[in-house]
């Protein structure tokens, strides 16, 4: 034992070193083993044994199992069989960030590497680079009308130059999301001595683990993030009684104020105080870890050292100046949570976490078929899928991982304003991540929440989305006043924001910065929340004020052009066109123009949402409602070009990139409904022509773009194309840990595609834009399957089973009652509760209605 311990503990400055203790820790090995404690820790079935007398009574039954324990521990990794649809698992440790296993409770995130010396990347959602910035350019309004004049008269390049000179923010970037640091846990294990290695993430329970053997001893690590307790908990254990030695420390290499370790009566403590950046008025935070063990604890001032333990439990939390005014306040909160976690103990924290998480995850289940390919480790399955996509359970696993990721990165908070999932959800190892890890508004944040409603997670995961808009709105009102001289209480948001709700234009790019449509797109998500939940209280108190303010901005900002109320300067997100010969500067690329198609589609959606809300809340005679109706009637209509495609801009410009990744011009197909086949078949046909054209020229080049494509083809009822793009996505984009990537496993992690994937699979099986549409796009490659627990607009819960490519049976539960119309596949005849369906009907609250095809 002494030689083993020596291999990873060096002499500690300031701690006496007995002659018989070459490790330098200054503590002796334990002389006795507490057998009852060991059994309580290792055998869940013996947790009720609380006294030595009870233990003695139980020993005749326990002795055979006790004798087998070391052998069971050693062989368990090899015998483990994991679910192919709810567990991602691996036989090697992580070798980079996108192979780690992520856990979170909505606010705290960890990424587990599973290496010999455990490395746990730490995150807290409010650790961003700095304070709110007032960035509005004072020259903006002076440039607004000259820019419009230039655009209207064909001086496209000059208008773009003036826009970027005088209308972008100063400075041009808001704050950025930032990493916290890492928790390192050394066990003295060399990688070349490890055998039987297995690590996993259980998507049904939210628990992650690592198991392996080292020099004949079995070791296990377990991790769980508890939303009810507000902490992350970890347990390190060994099947060798008192055979576990651990060194734990918090690490961060920038802007550290204090990093200390101590040992007190109830265990060890790690404390890290730091600033999120070197700038003025940075966000400050304190991270704490409590170490609880049956071993001997010591410290060298920067690490807690545990020797001769059976188990070591660690509890982690971080609190920041974002949510608390003083260090005293946030550290009081930190200590309250950690003290409570230590008192409760790891088994209780784990139980709380599983009960909370699984109550959300288990609302939905999916079966898309099975194959023998699902028995392999997840990273192997991904590699195999690239050449042999015969693993339907991989799609189900990805669907479940997306739901897991939303639950763990976005949770409502009753005590403080919550933050939504950002570009990386919650998980980030960089101080300055790609695109600042912000909330990007021209597709990404909206896509993050596409699956929230349909997979029955809205009540628990969507409130942070509304919380963010509550922070944006007052800043957006100020920007609207200063940039556009709109003083009617309307708010504007451009293509990006941060945790403070920064609303000014971001960066200085001709194809993304000057896009004032963020409030309109986010409003679409808000209205969808009501359509699914039917919660009039939330509609009245939270959604309506934001819809009202967003619409008011546009009724000020829009200007008459060619007989319509038009936007400008604006753009089609991140896309460029070639300036035509009769404009300047001919032949160059430009992005800024008047009335791109997406703008009109977004405004159609917004003003329609205002009118719908007015009717529901009996506000029809208010000025907001009558004004919205007027503007809705005078928006530029969608245009179809000579090739039969929806046009991206007001004119039939040549596209600089025909295969561009954004599908902005057909927002009206998905997530909007203006171009839906059952709404307007002409526009649906033109939208399909646009989609086919873009895909033929290489679109879908990013993970999120490919999953948007899945959703678009689902809206066109083309199940075979949905499955085609599902397979392409799985072949090209997921990292080994299933995270979505920008353009392939070796590129940057970006979580939006994970959520777009979930939405795409759900849209394939259920749509509800005007009717509850069962199996609208079931692929031929998935002839049988089932889904349980999806939610349709109107607050109907839907279970569907199909066989041979056709509906077997469905049940629809009316959680709010109300009118129900149903469609099956391509319009097949069916019965509801045995009666032939002839049209919609009123449902009762809690009523369950069975749907089946008419017997042939």
TrEMBL record:
Occurrences of domain Alpha fucosidase A-like C-terminal (ranges): 770-832
Listed transmembrane segments: 58-79
Pfam families according to UniProt: Glyco_hyd_65N_2 (PF14498), Glyco_hydro_95_C (PF21307), Glyco_hydro_95_cat (PF22124)
UniProt record, GO biological process: carbohydrate metabolic process
Domain Glycosyl hydrolase family 95 N-terminal: start-end pairs: 89-323
Molecular function as annotated in GO: alpha-L-fucosidase activity
InterPro entries per record: 6-hairpin_glycosidase_sf, 6hp_glycosidase-like_sf, AFCA-like_C, Alpha-L-fucosidase, GH95_cat, GH95_N_dom
Domain called Glycosyl hydrolase family 95 catalytic: residue spans: 346-765
Keywords tagged on the record: Membrane, Transmembrane, Transmembrane helix
Superkingdom of source: Eukaryota
PANTHER family (alphabetical): ALPHA-L-FUCOSIDASE 2
Protein name: Alpha-L-fucosidase 2
């Amino acid at each position: 034992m002494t030689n083993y311990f020596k291999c990873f503990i060096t002499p500690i400055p300031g701690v006496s070193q007995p002659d018989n203790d070459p490790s330098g820790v200054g503590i002796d090995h334990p002389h006795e083993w507490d057998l009852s404690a060991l059994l309580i820790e290792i055998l869940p079935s013996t947790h009720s044994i609380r006294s030595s007398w009870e233990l003695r009574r139980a020993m005749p039954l326990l002795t055979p199992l006790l004798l087998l324990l070391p052998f069971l521990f050693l062989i368990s990794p090899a015998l483990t069989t994991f679910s192919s649809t709810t567990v991602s698992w691996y036989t090697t440790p992580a070798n980079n960030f996108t192979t780690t296993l992520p856990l979170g409770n909505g606010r705290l995130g960890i990424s587990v590497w599973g290496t010999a010396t455990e490395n746990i990347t730490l995150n807290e959602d409010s650790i961003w680079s700095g304070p709110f910035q007032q960035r509005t350019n004072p020259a903006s309004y002076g440039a607004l009308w000259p820019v419009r004049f230039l655009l209207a008269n064909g001086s496209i390049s000059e208008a773009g130059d003036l826009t970027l000179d005088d209308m972008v923010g100063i400075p041009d970037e808001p704050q950025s999301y930032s990493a916290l640091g890492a928790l390192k846990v050394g066990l003295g294990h060399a990688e070349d001595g490890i055998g039987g290695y297995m690590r996993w993430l259980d998507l049904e329970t939210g628990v992650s683990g690592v198991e392996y053997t080292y020099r004949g001893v079995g070791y296990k690590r377990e991790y769980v993030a508890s939303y009810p307790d507000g902490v992350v908990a970890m347990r390190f254990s060994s099947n060798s009684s008192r055979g576990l030695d651990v060194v734990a420390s918090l690490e961060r290499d920038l802007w550290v104020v204090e990093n200390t370790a101590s040992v007190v009566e109830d265990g060890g403590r790690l404390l890290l105080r730091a600033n999120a950046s070197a700038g003025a008025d940075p966000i400050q935070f304190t991270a704490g870890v409590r170490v609880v063990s049956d071993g001997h604890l010591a410290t060298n001032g920067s690490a807690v050292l545990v020797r001769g333990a059976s188990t070591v439990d660690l509890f982690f939390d971080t609190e920041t100046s974002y949510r608390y005014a003083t260090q005293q306040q946030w550290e009081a909160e930190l200590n309250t949570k950690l003290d409570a976690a230590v008192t409760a103990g790891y088994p209780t924290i784990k139980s709380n976490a599983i009960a909370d998480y699984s109550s959300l995850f288990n609302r939905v289940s999916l079966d898309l078929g099975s194959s023998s390919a699902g028995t392999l480790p997840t990273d192997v399955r991904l590699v195999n899928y690239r050449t042999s996509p015969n693993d339907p359970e991989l799609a189900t696993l990805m669907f479940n991982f997306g739901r897991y990721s939303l639950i763990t990165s976005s949770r409502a908070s009753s005590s403080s304003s919550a933050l939504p999932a950002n570009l990386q959800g919650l998980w980030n190892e960089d101080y300055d991540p790609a695109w600042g890890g912000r909330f990007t508004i021209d597709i990404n944040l909206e896509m993050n929440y596409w699956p929230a409603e349909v997979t029955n997670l809205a009540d628990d995961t969507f409130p942070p989305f509304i919380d963010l808009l509550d922070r944006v709105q007052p800043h957006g009102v100020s920007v609207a006043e200063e940039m556009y001289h709109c003083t009617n209480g309307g708010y504007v948001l451009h293509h990006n924001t941060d945790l403070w709700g920064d609303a000014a234009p971001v960066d200085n790019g001709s194809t993304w910065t000057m896009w004032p449509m963020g409030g309109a797109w986010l409003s679409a998500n808000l209205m969808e929340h009501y359509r699914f939940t039917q919660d009039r209280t939330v509609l009245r108190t939270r959604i309506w004020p934001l819809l009202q303010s967003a619409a008011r901005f546009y009724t000020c900002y829009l200007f008459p052009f060619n007989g319509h109320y038009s936007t400008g300067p604006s753009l089609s997100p991140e896309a460029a066109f070639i300036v035509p010969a009769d404009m300047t500067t001919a032949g160059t690329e430009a992005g800024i123009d008047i009335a791109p198609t997406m703008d009109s589609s977004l405004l159609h959606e917004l003003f329609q949402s205002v009118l719908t809300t007015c009717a529901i809340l009996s506000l029809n005679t208010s000025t907001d409602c009558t004004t919205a109706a007027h503007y809705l009637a005078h928006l530029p209509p969608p245009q179809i070009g000579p090739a039969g495609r929806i046009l991206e801009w007001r004119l039939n410009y040549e596209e600089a990139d025909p295969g561009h990744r954004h599908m902005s011009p057909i927002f009206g197909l998905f997530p909007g409904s203006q171009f839906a086949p059952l709404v307007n078949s002409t526009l649906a046909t033109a939208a399909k022509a646009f989609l086919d054209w873009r895909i033929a020229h290489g679109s879908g080049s990013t993970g999120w773009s490919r999953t948007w494509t899945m959703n678009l083809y689902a809206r066109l009822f083309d199940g075979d194309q949905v499955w085609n793009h599902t397979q392409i996505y799985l072949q090209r984009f997921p990292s080994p840990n299933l995270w979505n990537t920008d353009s392939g496993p070796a590129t940057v992690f970006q979580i939006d595609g994970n959520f777009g994937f979930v939405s795409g699979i759900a849209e394939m099986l259920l749509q509800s834009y005007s009717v509850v549409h069962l199996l609208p796009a079931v692929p031929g490659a998935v002839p049988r399957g089932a889904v349980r627990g999806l939610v349709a607009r109107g607050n109907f819960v839907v279970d569907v089973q199909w066989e041979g490519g056709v509906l077997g049976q469905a049940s629809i539960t009316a959680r709010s009652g109300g009118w129900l119309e149903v469609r099956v596949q391509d319009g097949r005849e069916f019965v509801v509760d045995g009666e032939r369906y002839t049209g919609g009907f009123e449902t009762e609250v809690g009523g369950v209605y069975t749907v089946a095809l008419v017997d042939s």
